[in-house]
Amino acid sequence: MNTLSVRETFSLGFMAFALFLGAGNIIFPPFIGLQAGSHVWTAAAGFLVTGVGLPVLSVIALAKAGGEMGNIISPVGKIAGNVLIVACYLFIGPLFASPRTATVSYELGMAAYINNGGNALYYYSFVYFALAALVSLFPGRLLESVGQVLAPLKIVSLIVLGGAVLLLPAVSVQEPVADYIAAPLSSGIVNGYLTMDTLAGLAFGLVVVNAVRARGITSQAHVTRYTIRAGIIAGVGLTLVYLSLFMLGMKSTALAPDATNGADVLRAFVQHAFGARGSLFLGVLITLACLVTAIGLTCSCAAYFSTVTPFGYRPLVLFFAALAFSISCAGLDTLIRISIPVLIAVYPPFIMLIVMSFVHHRLSQPVRVIAPATAVAFLCGLFDGLDAAGLKQFVPAVYTSLPLHGQQMAWLLPGGVVLLLSFCASRFSRAVQAAS
Description:
The chain is mostly helical. It is 75% helix and 0% strand. The radius of gyration is 22 Å and the shape is globular. It starts with 5 loop residues before the first helix and ends with a helix.
């Protein structure tokens, strides 16, 4: 079999869309819409660059790399590359992101119906990860279970939510607040950047590639083509959802005047639009969104570590599900407090490597060009991580004076400068060698 039908291609795209769209993705845009007010579409443009553009780019990069993250990481060397790959899978998998999906879905979806005290979270997380493991044990049927069952359920729920947004009468748009007054574009960029979907795209890209291969596609060119199409379909779906959620927040000024986060905005809107059953609807939506993401993370982690350890795929699925369950018992606040600084630290080097993966084959000396810039990006990310952890005394004063430091994007300037200098040095070295 060398081709997929149109239906299978769209199922693949829906699967990728469902894997990306977790609870955090549903929560961020409404709060941006509420706070950005009349500047909402400027902020939305920034959010879409990093919340949609970079994740889709990471899926495409992985597809072009033959489904091997190692091909993207190779310019930094074998040891550093392996460390980055392991860190990526562990951080967005069983250590942080996967446990967080359980705690978020519990807090936003089930806490209203379950006694919030005692061991309720433990029981909920156990059932949650048991379901995630059950689906993940059969990766060959992931396209059917996620792309043709769970993803459509999630999409239908989002369509219902989006329809309610469109039917809500227009309201007077409030003036922007906080950072959206003077810098709506960069504030939107930062919020999209902090979704961490660019890292997730590398893991989900592998899931998509494996799903294509499980359908009997053996040609690498066809695998790449269908993975790219799935990434584009996912990107279009994410964009439509985000736009409706921005509008939801913008129209919720009177419904959630005292909201402190996107969950408050969503909860107020759903209660207004759907009445007493609104909480149940929100619970189903959030639980579906989180569960599909947890399945994708479990599959991708087990698939990778089964290739670099003596353990098989299925034992690793059970191990990672159990590990994620254990960590989720710490609770949402603890997970967020610990995970954010760590993820902020590792994000910049991955962005550098993903972007450069599209051109590194055109470089005569890719290691000399890409490795120094990636090292600088990692060092800057480490400073940002220390800053986010409240350890400002370890951050050099000169770094805090760089542009975009307040938005945790100061690495762009030094990383870009080193990349340019490394490229010029490589060209000069090549010219000298040719002349001699």
